[in-house]
Structure formats: structure tokens, C-alpha cells
Amino acid sequence: MGVEGIGARVPRKEDKRFITGKGRYTDDMSVAGMCKAAFVRSPHAHAKIAGIDTAAAEKMPGVIAVLTGGQLKEDGIGDIICGWMIHSKDGSPMNMGANPALAVDTARHVGQAVAVVIAETQAQAREAADAVNVNWQELPAVASADAALAAGAPQIHENAPNNLIYDWEIGDAAAADAAIAGAAHVTKLEISNNRLVPNAMEPRAALADYNAAEDHYTLWTTSQNPHVARLVLSAFYQVAPEHKLRVIAPDVGGGFGSKIYIYPEEIVCLWASKKAGVPVKWTADRTEAFLTDAHGRDHITTAEMAFDANNKMIGLKVDTIANFGAYMSLFSSAVPTYLYATLLSGQYVIPAIHCNVRAVYTNTTPVDAYRGAGRPEACYVMERLVETAARELGVSPAELRRANFVGEFPYQTPVIMAYDAGDFDASLNAAMAGADYAGFAGRKAEAEARGKLRGIGMACYIEACGIAPSQAVGSLGAGVGLWESAEVRVNPVGTIEVLTGSHSHGQGHETTFAQLVAERLGVGLDSVQIVHGDTDKVQFGMGTYGSRSGAVGMSAISKAIDKVEAKAKKIAAHLMEAAEGDIEIADGEVRVAGTDKKLGWHEVCLAAYTAHNLPEGMEPGLKEGAFYDPANFTFPAGCYICEVEVDPGTGHTDIVQFVAADDFGRIINPMIVEGQVHGGVVQGIGQALLEGCQYDPETGQLVTATYNDYPMPRADDVPSFDVSTTETLCPNNPLGIKGCGEAGAIGSPPAVINAITDAIGNNDLTMPATAEKVWRALSASAVAQAAE
Amino acid sequence: MDLSGEYRIPAPRERVWAMLNDRDVLRVCIPGCEELEQTADNAFSARVTTKVGPVKATFNGAVTLENINPPEGYTIAGEGKGGVAGFASGGADVHLAEDGAETILTYTASAKVGGKLAQLGSRLLDSTARKLADQFFAKFAAMAGGEPEAGAPAEEGAIAGALHKVEDTVSEAAHQLSDSAHKAEEALERQAARGVLGGPLVWGLLALAAIILFYIIAT
Fold first, then answer.
1. Which residues are CB-contacts of A237 (< 8 A; sequence separation ≥ 6)?
2. B134 or A385, which is more confident?
3. Closest chain A C-alpha to B147 CA, distance in angstroms
4. Is residue B99 domain-shared with residue B206, that is, in the same domain?
5. Cα(A779)–Cα(A760) distance, rounded to whole angstroms?
6. Which of B87, B122, B188, B203 to probe the A interface (max A CBs under 10 A)?
7. pLDDT digits (tens, 9 = 90+) for A545-599
8. Do residues B88 and B137 both lie within one domain?
9. Residue A221: beta bridge partners?
10. Partner-chain contact A696 B84, CB within 8 Å
11. Distant-in-sequence, close-in-space partners of B112: CB < 8 Å, separation ≥ 6
12. Among A460, A482, A428, A507, CA closest to A676
């Protein structure tokens, strides 16, 4: 490892512009003649649109156009799609309800866009949007997934009877039932996984500019995957053909999944920029973000885990209802199926597993992938079950886990995934040492003397990321392949531009990707520029989500570097009259091994471009591209231990210690990895303690649409984290990387809830564990004890 | 949202009932009421301007009366629209009981709200509605009480006098409000410019409260 190469703790190159306010986000973009869009949104959770009167709005000052869903439909703009086909267990395809970018006859959630006003200024657009008179005919609404399945519930889409999108299963039901029937002990839990609002710091935005002279569109947008956006906008929504549409995702202030999808606003801005003949910009306000960014989680689950007389896991049965909201978002169908149920083996050997998932429409904001996407829900089910089982069996939670760990790799689970490498004992041991697990009893006694209830909880997570092998996801229903592309352009002076299909929106790619180049080609980080986020610069890419940019994106760069290296060596060997196999590239030099013959890296690069003296038949230049398609998912795993103190008087929980021991495979930049773990753990703690998106069950109104009612975690809600890593290399990509972007949000919620339930002696606690809920659970356990 | 309350009005039930059917009394007692018109035998429309924080808006409401049973009570149903601020609809049962020379008024109201009113103000609805209800009944009781010591049935003139007094107070308050309203509007513009509030917004809570009041009262 060099000082700037793989494994170096290099400060982030991008931070200078972010910290000094020089980032360039979509809302910072401006083009001549630009107008603003304001959307007219449904105030009702479910209502027929009997008519839209735009006459008053059209006459207001500054208004260029008022456009409705009817016009959108007339112009042939396609409905929004879900790109992953899931079949129910009876073989029928999922029931996808029509999802127009502007509602035509029915609005199905509060905040759904029904019309748009284009005006010269933001204020004019908003004033006029308020003057658009929609004749609403209110319909009964339903907000929760179980209520939506109940007999007599309001029907949301005609083609989804009983609001059921699919009824899907995985695993062997008979085997799981038999294991439970023959078990020495069965632990059963009812589990809810609370709905979350993503809350990226930068709200979504779009600026669309149609150039009539060239019949060409440019879209600046807050996207995690601009190429996928262009493909979908063009192939499915027919906004413009791909070669006539440039999508640019400049600096993006956080995504967490919510900026994967192609939303109505982007489609409408593109369409409206041609229709109204002006460039159109829209930037969400925070209320629009709460109402329209795809939400996360929202599962209701019943789970049973069976043990034999030796405390070995012999079976698992899980039944989950997933709330999809009013429409199927782009990857929504994959989240509670292939990103959730396939992880229900956890870190354990469980011979029989069965999971049934029903996906359900409700009159709420659509739900899709959010940091972890299905894996936090799976981990929460597994780790709440195991911890509860340990309490019921009267054994150490750590030792119960250890006794059931997968110890040999590769390991084929009964639910598709084949774990390729790992060492679960190592991360468990590291976390227990870091947390001084053995000393907990002493700390508990000391806390008790201070009047505090101290509890400890752990979670051993495994996740599948680096998504994913194209052939595998294709066979499971994905509409796209999940490879990644890279192009390494070496300039005549030896500096390097790397064009990547990954997209950085907080991950630090400009630093870590450059570290890979520095490591391989021996140049300084300052000589490397990472280019991303523009479909005119990068040919294609699948974008960044599912912790895939290290394992997949960097592997593509690595493959392109292989080709650059090979050509540079051929040129150098030719120039120095040496054998190609003897050429080494290091420290900015190209040497003949075992001799003092050498050339500067820049000299070889210049030679490639002067082309005065190249090997016979070689093309000039030094630029190579690669597409990389992984052979398998990657499987980061680890152990988190949380220690809390609960104030019995108020129910307030203080997290007093949090230890994370992760196995991410090879680490490129430990500082950036630690930052990812910190951020993920804080998001997980937010889910466990604070964040709970609530709809009024009768009216479907979102009643947690401000930071007053939807608290985000703050610095003083969390302790200083103890973060460490163990390392087993991923055998399925050239760099041995597993990915670190989501682990924190996956492993932390069960660790926190396990700790609180341990502290209060009552396992009946749902997330978010607010002070009120904890206090009530404490009171309930006190009453129960008194009764005994 | 469900809301219930009980008030002691220092006047006989017949008189309270009469006042509850006096448009002028109601117009003065409803906080922020600018207009109260009878649209049919048992139907009214009202316009109420009110503020929440820095935001001011006008709320249009319509109320109908059912189960009218003088002087014991009625059921009211209504809805109000505040444009971009959202909407409210609901109903209330109002009951008047005699207690010597005084009257006990009880009501149970339920309302549902939507749009920004629900998104931004749901946690404030209960307390705001209750506060406005209290303001309404404070005025109403003062007017009903007429001459405090006498306790005798008030003449028409007494009511008119009380009305004047209340209107004076209201106009004084309104004067003070217009100053702060000006400042508040500036603050709103600043916030709107920053994108914090998303345009002319919220305020509608008060409007809802007014509507609830309106349920409680209107006749």
C-alpha cells in the first residue's frame, strides 16, 4: 500500500467543495429563460377527480402553462413502471396498477401530483397552482397493510383485488412446518418494521431544457443512476429517444435509495419544457419530500424459529405483509422478496426455511428501497428472534448464535443465497472484546446504583450486496442487468481520467476510485480525475445503490486498468527493447525488472499519443474500457453490540455504548468506511428510537410530515462509536471488496431494541422505541411482576 | 380528532338558545370571523381569517344543522376549505342543560383534516381548537351574563351594549394584530423565499378551530 493507494486513510478529495459551499447541485443550475414548476397535489388520500378547472390559474401573472394528466396521456407519455417482475405462488404475475405521472381520474395518496403550473417565478407558479380548482370526490381510504387486506377495505386499483399485489413464497413450507412441529423449543414473535421517510439533505430537483432546433433534451436531476433514468425515460415513458436525451446528475446531496427511482416530476418537467417551450425547473420543498420521496420498510411479520434439544436451529417460518403504498415504485417488488426473504438464513445454518410475502396497496406514499432495502427487515426478524430465543432458553445470546453459525464456505442457504466467504466467529469475538461483554454485569450493577436500567443487546447481520450478477437477477425477474462500466483515459502527459457508471452522492468515489488508480499505476491522486453522472460523458452505467460501487464499479475500473497496463507495458517493452513480461509499473515509473532501465510513466503515455515508435500494428492512444458483471452477490457481515441505559421514571433511552465489528472484505479507505458505518448506524438508531412515519388510519393523511413530528437523529442522540473491521476477502471480484454502504443501517436496529428490551425486562416493544413506549412497556412489566 | 367540552353560561337556557341563534352574537364571538351569512333555513356560511405562526389565511366554511330540538340542542355538520392550507370537515352534538338560572353547554365534536393542515399542524389541532373554543365561550358567557350582578333577563339593549363592548375590544386587538401581522407577513415572505414553508401555507389550524367553534355555535 502506498501513502495514497489501497488501504490509505486519505482525506476526501470532494470535501473541499462540499465544506466550502462550492458543490454544484441541480438547484444551482440555471439556463436562460428558465421558468419554475409548481405541482397541484391531492389533499386527499383517495379521491376521484371529477374535473380540473385551470381557467383562473391560466390568467394569473407570469403563468406560461397549466398542464394536466389528461394532456400528458394525450401526448403518449407512458405510465411509471416497476422494473422487477414478481410472480405469485400460483404463477400469476404481480398486479401493477396504472401509475401516470399526473393523476388522470383518481388520486390514491396525499401529495400525488394532478397538474402542474409553469410560471416565470416560483411564487407565481405556486400562487397559480393554488388557483387550480380540482373537483374532488372523496373516497374511503386505507393506510395500513393489514387493514387494506381486510374484507370490505377500500379498493385502490381495479386490477388488484383485495389490494393484493402478489402473494409470493420462497423455501420449503412443509419442511419448515415439520421442523416446528418436531421442535424442542419454538420462539415466536410478531414484528413490525416501521415506515421511514428517507430525508436526504438535498431535496429532489429537476431542470429540463428542450432545444427545439436540435429536438434534444437535457435533464439535470437528483439521481443515483442517470443512465438508468435516461433508459427508463426513453424506453418506457417515451419522453424522448435515448440519443436525444442527456441526463446529468451533478453533485447530489444524499440518496439512500430514494433517488434511484424516476419520479413524476422529472417526467413532467421534460414533457413540459417542450410543451411550454421554456426550460422548466422544479425543486421539492421539504413537505413535498415527505409526501413524495419513496418511503422505506413498513412490514408486518409473524416469525417462528424452531430449535432442537441441543439448541440448534432446525427451522424458520416467516409470514410478512409489505405495505407498498398507492403505486409500485421502480424496484419496490424486489425489496420484500429477493432482497429480504433470501437473507432469512442470517449467519446461521438453518435446514428448513419458508417465507411468505404478501405485497399490498394502501393509500400512502409509494414504498421502495431505502438504505439496506429488505435486508434491515430480514436482519431485524432474525436477530430479534435469536435474542428472544436465548432469553427463553436461558442461554447466552452470544453463545446461542455461535453454536449455530455457518462455519464452512461456500455455504448454500435454503433461500437462494450462496455465502462465498466469511468468519462470523471473528466479528463476534471482535465485537465482544470491544464491548467488554464479560464486564456487563458489573456495569449493570453500577447503573442500578444510579437508578438506571442498563441493558445489552447484539445483532449479527449478514447482507447481500454489490448487486449483482446480471444473469442471476434476470432469472429472478429484474428488468435490467446489474453490471458496471468504466473507461480509463490516460492523457498524453500521463494524467488519468476515469469515467465510471457509478454515481457518487456522498460515498467519496472521487477519492476511493482514484486510490485504486494510484495503487495500480503509481501516480499521485492529484493526477487522477473521476468523471461520473453525465450520460454524454460516460457511455452507460447502472449507478449506485445496494453497496455496489466498490465491489462492482471499482472492479470495472480495475479491469480497464488491466488493459491500460497491458498496453503500456507493450509500448514500454518496445521502447526499451525488453520482454513485455519483465516490465513493472510503480511509483510513476515503468521499469525493466532487475535492470536500471526505466522510463517515466508520462514518457510511455506520450509515446502512445505521438505514435512515432509503437509496436507494429498497434493503434495509437492509451484509453481502455471495461464492463464488469460480478459472479455473485457479496456478503458483508458483522456483529453490533449496543448498550443502553433507560431512565425508569421517564422511559428515556441513552445509548451509552455502541460497538461495530464489520467484515467488508478489502478496504480501500478506512476513514471513508468508518464514515459509512457511522452514518448507517445513526440511521439505524433513528429507526429504532425516533423515526416513525404515521398516517391517520381513517383519512390516510400523513401526520408526521415535519421535523416536529418526524424526529431525525442528532449528534446528541448517539454515543461515540467503537468501529473496527475483520477481513475475509470476497473471492468473487478482483479486489476482494464486499461493500460497506448499508451495513450500519442493517445491523443496528435489532441491537438497539435487544438492548432496551433487556434493560426493561419486557420483550413487547415496537420501533421507534420512544420514551413513551418504553415507559409503558416498563409499567406493563412492573404490573406483570406484581401480579406474579 | 375528537374534542369535547363543557361550559357554564350564566344565563337561562332559553336565552342561551336564543343567543346561539343570533347571527350577530356568533359573528362577534367567533375569533377571526369576518362574515357569517344564513344561506338556508338551517345552513350558514362563514369566512374566518386567522393565523398560525407567521402565516395568515382565509377559511371558508359551510355548516348545516340537524336534529334541532329547541332549547335543548342540535347536531351540526360542516366543512371548511382553506385553499392551499387544506380542508376540515366534521360534526358536533351540542346540548344545553338547565342548572338553576344558569345553563350547562356540552359538546362533542369530531373532525378530520387534510392537506397541509394535517401535515404541519396535526399535533397542534387539539390545543388550538380548545383555545379558540375557550375564547369563543369566554365572550359568549360575558355577553350572556349581561349585567353580572343582576342576573336578570337581559334586555335587547343590554345585549347590544355588550356587543359594543366586545367589538371595541376586538377592534383594539385587531389593531394590535395588524401591526404584528405586517411583521409576520414579512417573515413569511422571507421563509417562503428560503423554501422553508412552501408558499402561503399553514395557518389553517386556527381555521379548523374556528370551524369547530362554528359547529358548536352556529344556528
1. A77, A78, A80, A101, A262, A267
2. A385
3. 46
4. no
5. 9
6. B122
7. 999 999 999 999 999 999 999 999 999 999 999 999 999 999 999 999 999 999 9
8. yes
9. A206
10. no
11. A696, A698, A699, A701, B1, B88, B89, B90
12. A507
* Contact call for residues A360 and A398 (beta carbons, < 8 A): no
Please list every residue in chain B whose beta carbon sits closer than 8 Å to the beta carbon of residue A129: 84
The nearest CA of chain A is from the CA of B120 a distance in Å of 6
Does A130 contact B113 at a Cβ distance shorter than 8 Å? no
Return the C-alpha cell found at B175. Answer: 389593531
**Are residues B192 and A44, on separate chains, in Cβ contact within 8 Å?**
no
- Complex ipTM > 0.85: no
How close does chain B come to A108, measured CA to CA in Å? 14
Tell me the pLDDT band of B209, cut-offs 50, 70 and 90: very low
3-state secondary structure at position A40: strand
Given B145, B160, B184, the domain boundary residue is B145
Taking contacts as CB-CB distances below 8 angstroms, the residues of chain A near B86 are 43
Q: Best mutation site among A126, A285, A695 for testing chain B: the one with the most B CBs within 10 Å?
A: A285
Q: A205 pairs with which residues across the strands?
A: A283
- Whether the pLDDT of residue A310 is over 50: the answer is yes
Task: Count CB pairs under 8 A between chains A and B.
Answer: 70
Beta strands in A185-344 (DSSP E): 185-193, 205-211, 216-221, 245-248, 280-283, 299-307, 313-325
Spatial contact of A451 and A625, defined as CB atoms under 8 Å apart: no
Q: What is the pLDDT of residue B58?
A: 76
pLDDT tens per residue, range B34-73: 888 888 888 889 888 766 554 556 778 888 888 999 889 9
Residues of B in contact with A123 (CB under 8 A): 192, 199
Residue of B nearest to A41 (CA): B115
What whole-number distance in Å separates Cα of residue A84 and Cα of residue A504? 24
Distance from CA of B125 to the nearest CA of A (A): 11
Residue contact A699–B112, C-beta within 8 A = yes
Distances (CA, A) of A524 to A2, A520, A565: 10, 11, 16
Residue ranges of chain B whose CB lies within 8 Å of a chain A CB = 83-84, 86-87, 112-116, 118-120, 122-123, 192, 195-200
> Any alpha helices (H) in chain B, and if so which ranges?
13-20, 23-29, 116-145, 156-194, 204-217
Query: Which cell goes with A267?
Result: 417526467
Find the mean pLDDT for residues B89-96.
86
Contact A286 B86 (CB under 8 A): no
For A236, A240, A282, the CA distances from A267, given in Å and listed in that order, are 11, 10, 11
Give the residue from A503, A537, A500, A34 showing the smallest Cα distance to A252: A503
- Whether A238 has its CB under 8 Å from any CB of chain B: the answer is no
Which tens digits make up the pLDDT trace of A372-400? Answer: 999 999 999 999 999 999 999 999 999 99
Using a CB–CB cutoff of 8 Å, tell me whether A701 touches chain B.
yes
- For residue A643, which of A542, A751, A544 has the smallest C-alpha distance? A751
Cβ count within 10 A of residue A491: 17
Strands of the sheet containing B102-114, edge to edge, are B2-9, B102-114, B87-99, B73-81, B55-69, B43-52, B33-40
CATH topology of domain A299-467+632-787: Aldehyde Oxidoreductase; domain 4 (3.30.365)
pLDDT of A392 reads: 98
Looking at CATH, the fold of the domain delimited by A32-139+202-253+259-292 is given as Aldehyde Oxidoreductase; domain 3 (3.90.1170)
Q: How many domains, chain B? A: 2
Alpha helices in A465-545 (DSSP H): 470-475, 509-521
Alpha-carbon separation of residue A557 from A220, A226, A531, A550, A624 (angstroms): 25, 19, 12, 10, 10
Q: At what angle do helices A743-760 and A771-787 cross, to 10 degrees?
A: 40
Domain A483-628, what fold? Aldehyde Oxidoreductase; domain 4 (3.30.365)
Chain B CB within 8 Å of residue A124 CB = no
Residue A38: its chain B contacts at CB < 8 A?
Answer: 199
